[in-house]
Amino acid sequence: MPVLAALFAAPQAWALSIFTCEPEYAALVKELAPQARVSSATTALQDPHHVQARPSLISKLRRADLAICAGAELEVGWLPMLQMKANNPKVRDGQSGMLYAADHVDALGKLDKVDRSMGDVHAGGNPHFHFSPERVQSIAKAVTAKLVELDPAHQSDYQANLADFSQRWSEATARWETLAAPLKGKKVIAYHSSFQYLFDWLGIDQAGDLEPKPGLPPTTGHLAQLLKLTESTPIIAVIYTGYQDGRGAQWLGQRARLPVLQLPFGPGGEEADDLFQLYDTNIRMLLETLENKDV
Asked: Hey, is 119 helix, strand or coil?
């Protein structure tokens, strides 16, 4: 018993408390710091643009040594309030315990000017970096550097975990690119720009958007225009994700006789436990659609 007590009392490696805004960063942290206490403000079935500052989230952020979020204004509608209520100096903007992925990658879709007529757009670009293998590698390096800064006693552990993850990720990326080669040049209609990085990486063309403007739900007139588009353009699927309203996608899919895919948007659901499974699942579902459709 004294031996067990000593073991439980011994300091644990990677014992940082880490708060993430999205599940993809929780999954990444678990690769890099498997013993950390990790929480996520959202799940793969929640819209990361809109989160309530619930007491449970306030409590988690208050205890956090490090917070990791996408940035690029994705959390601008709720994170500042959460930071204020948590009253944790370590995870305020500009402090050592606050890391934004957007600060470490180049975003697609950056805009010089933004006004309300453009809808719900991000001047800093598309914040859904986790569907870009190259950007995931860059973010993993930035997170590891931050872990070492906050917990230098376990520097060798973090660096070894990064090396292991990077090797497995590079090998998986090469496999995914070979597997997904038949998707290059294919056209889809999708909801929002949620999968912009995935499409850009795989060479898929998002020929139409279910939203008439970013942040606005599909209208009857807009769906009619998309239906007309499908008559002249070889679309392989209509795509949306779990937190988006699928009624417009289903309406269009039924009338255009197109497959409708609800692709998983993040790890943690039934279809994807981690980042590797997330990529595996999305590519598999897209390929199955292609195999079942003569385009």
From this structure: coil
Q: Residue-wise over 145-155: b if at least 16 C-beta within 10 A, else e?
A: ebbbebbeebe
- When pLDDT is cut at 50, 70 and 90, the band that residue 293 belongs to is low
Q: What is the mean pLDDT of the chain?
A: 91
Helix and strand counts by DSSP (H, E) for the chain = 10, 8
Q: What is the pLDDT of residue 292?
A: 80
Q: Are 191 and 211 in contact (CB under 8 A)?
A: yes
Task: Round to whole Å and give the CA distance between 31 and 157.
Answer: 12
Please give the CATH topology (third level) of the domain spanning 13-175.
Rossmann fold (3.40.50)
Q: Which CATH class is domain 180-291?
A: alpha beta
The DSSP bridge pattern shows strands 205-209 and 98-100 to be unpaired
Q: How many CB atoms lie within 10 A of CB 50?
A: 11
Q: What angle do CA 93, 98, 33 make, to 5 degrees?
A: 175
* The pLDDT of residue 67: 98
* Residue 116, pLDDT score: 55
CB 33 within 8 A of CB 278: no
Length of the chain: 295
Collect all residues with Cβ–Cβ distance below 8 Å to 1 and sequence separation of at least 6. Answer: none
- Residue 220 in tokens: 């009857």
Task: Give the Cα separation of 170 and 141 in Å (integer).
Answer: 14
* Per-residue pLDDT at 115 exceeds 70: no
Bridge partners for 100 per DSSP: 69
Predicted pLDDT of residue 124: 76
Domain boundaries, the chain: 13-175, 180-291
β-pair partners for 18: 38, 66
Q: Burial, 287: exposed, middle or buried (Cβ in 10 Å; 0-12, 13-18, 19+)?
A: middle
Q: To which residue do tokens 């595996």 refer?
A: 280
